Amino acid sequence: MTASNAPRKPLVVGNWKMNTDRAGALALANEVAQGTTELREHVVVGVCPPFVYLDAVVRDLRASGYKLHVGAQDVSPEPNGALTGEVSVAMLEDLSVEFSLTGHSERRHVIGESDELVGRKTAAALSAGHGVILCVGETLDQRKAGQTDAVNERQLRTGLAGVAPEHLPILSIAYEPVWAIGTGNTATPQDAQRAHMAVRSVIADLFGADAAGQMRILYGGSVKPDNARELFACPDIDGGLIGGASLKAAPFIEIAVAAAESR
Ligand code: PGA
């Protein structure tokens, strides 16, 4: 994850959300690591367990010798202090957790995080050398109102406001239309590709065409083994952020295979 993005080797990340228990998390991480070992030349694979299991998952993987990138589902923008319940970048790095999601739609729309807060988290993580997958995406109402590109652009510009060009190699973007997350409704490959192109053009405007060409843009929202292939075949879709289908090893590994075979 901390390696360079170029030349856009696909990335597939499982977001476990508030699921699993300790034993289940260890078993799932091990099965995924084992089942994707042969794919490592063609796809980067990661998982985001709940905070409380991160240490155990990282240690267990280290002991087993299997490689899997491990990330957190969120991170505090502050280095330390009186912030009950928060987890800092340094704490995650202390556990060898390599990256964090920022701006996931459930944190924006269920928990109420603002674009500015997401931007502060993104900047704090990246400036400490901690990888980030910045999530953006429109709600159904915004989509119906024709605001998809405008919402993505606003979330990108604010989310990346504090990001310096030298941090881009450890940044990826995930486009996750809110109406597609956990609903079984996936964006069509055509719609997803169109949105990904628009996201890439915002990155080009912010950081230049070369940076945009190297930026991984993942699709997320009801990705399953049976729709992964056609999504990953799109030229601007560089892998996926997978929720429900990452909670069992077999479908998640199938999705990783689809990503590995997409380039
Ligand atoms: P889903 O979740 O695959 O269950 O739709 C994706 C996500 O929230 O990252």
3D architecture notes:
The protein is 44% helix and 14% strand. The protein has 263 residues and is α/β, with parallel strands linked by helices. Strands 1-2-3-4-5-6-7-8 form an eight-stranded parallel barrel, surrounded by seven helices. Helix 1 crosses helix 2 (51-64). The longest helix is centred in the C-terminal third of the chain and has 19 residues, at 189-207. The radius of gyration is 17 Å and the shape is globular. Residues 2-6 have low confidence and may be disordered. 2-phosphoglycolic acid (PGA) binds at residues 15, 176, 181-182, 220-223, 241-245.
Report the mean per-residue pLDDT as an integer: 96
List the helices and strands in order.
EHEHEHEHHEHHEHHEHEH
In this entry the ligands are: 2-phosphoglycolic acid
> Helix fraction?
40-55%
Structural class, by secondary structure, is alpha/beta
Largest sheet: 8 strands, parallel, barrel
Could you tell me the radius of gyration in angstroms?
A: 17 Å
Topology:
Layout (H helix, E strand, L loop, with lengths): L10 E5 L6 H15 L7 E5 L2 H14 L4 E4 L16 H6 L4 E4 L2 H5 L5 H13 L3 E6 L3 H5 L3 H12 L11 E5 L13 H19 L1 H6 L1 E5 L4 H8 L6 E4 L6 H12 L3
Parallel strand pairs: 1-2, 1-8, 2-3, 3-4, 4-5, 5-6, 6-7, 7-8
